[in-house]
Specification:
With about 230 residues, the chain is an alpha+beta fold. Helix content is about 35%, strand content about 25%. Among the domains are: about 30 residues; about 90 residues, Sandwich (Immunoglobulin-like), CATH 2.60.40; about 35 residues.
Length: about 230
């Protein structure tokens, strides 16, 4: 049974159409590492590593992120996450307080057999996320540190100062001062010698007794002399 040239042509066109359709379908369902990208960003003051999947076929893929240190995995960042991409892109996030110029390895494993790292590795920006800087409170006068002069204690001063010994001695005579005149020095001497008293009369009587006694002695001596002469 011979096949006509027309039939062969029809079969060739159909085969080519089927292969082309399968090729488009395969490309639409393919999941390649080029459809994935990673970026280190900030969520407020916290660091975040985001991975975006732009697989239009929506192939399920598992994303794992590792911190690198000298070309080796230092630690895994969080848990692995599953994503189904889209033409617009689907993003998954990993909370990480990343440091400037740090290196992370992002691994992608898809259901179609894809098992690769996003190349090149992710390098974080040279500036980290800023911390929330709250203004420092201004110290009040009571909170301020006292200076050495403030801490030195000074003796309490009473309203009525206590006079010293010199002051008490100097002020004592002042208390005797009044409007009455002070007694003259001569009056005190006169009192001691008996002036204005009976001292003169007593002295006169004593003198008289002295004269009488002297006369008696005189006459007695004369009589004794006369007796001796006999």
């Amino acid at each position: 049974m011979s096949i006509s040239r027309r039939s062969v042509r029809i079969l060739g066109v159909a085969s080519a159409s089927a292969a082309l359709a399968l090729g488009f379908a395969g490309n639409a369902l393919a999941c390649s590492i080029g459809e994935f990208s990673a970026e280190a960003t900030c969520d407020g003051t916290s660091g975040v590593i985001t991975v975006t999947d732009k697989d239009a076929g929506g192939t399920e893929a598992t994303i794992t992120v590792f911190l690198e240190n000298n070309g080796a995995d230092a630690k895994q960042i969080g848990d692995a996450q599953t994503v189904k991409g889209s033409k617009a892109g689907v993003t998954v996030s990993f909370a990480e307080d990343w440091q400037p110029n740090a290196t992370y390895r992002v691994h992608v494993e898809a259901a179609n057999g894809l098992n690769k790292n996003i190349s090149p590795n992710l390098t974080t920006p040279s500036k980290a996320c800023k911390a929330d800087e709250s203004p420092s409170p201004t110290p009040t006068p009571t909170e301020a540190s006292p200076s050495p002069s403030d801490t030195a204690t000074t003796p309490a001063e009473s309203d009525t100062p206590t006079p010293s010994a010199s002051e008490s001695s100097s002020t004592a005579p002042a208390t005797t001062t009044d409007n009455a005149p002070s007694p003259a020095a001569g009056s005190s001497n006169l009192a001691e010698t008996g002036a204005n008293s009976n001292t003169g009369m007593i002295a006169g009587i004593a003198g008289a007794f002295v004269v009488v006694g002297g006369g008696a002695v005189y006459f007695g001596m004369r009589r004794r002399g006369a007796a001796n002469a006999r």
